[in-house]
């Protein structure tokens, strides 16, 4: 490489590395969110189909004495 091109690459290297890191973090966030959404939807659907998503209403708690 010519010295001028080598200097240009050396100047751009931190920017390129930063953009790659930001892209990977962004892609990981999207993949994690998508996995979480997909997993929660499947979990909710399986609970609803088995009827376990419905729970009997809790009785009203006894009123705490005023202090």
TrEMBL record:
Record field: compositional bias (Polar residues): 40-55
Keyword Transmembrane in annotation: yes
Region (Disordered): 40-67
Domain of life: Bacteria
UniProt keyword list: Membrane, Transmembrane, Transmembrane helix
Regions crossing the membrane: 12-36
UniProt-recorded name of the protein: Uncharacterized protein
Organism expressing this protein natively: Methylobacterium tardum
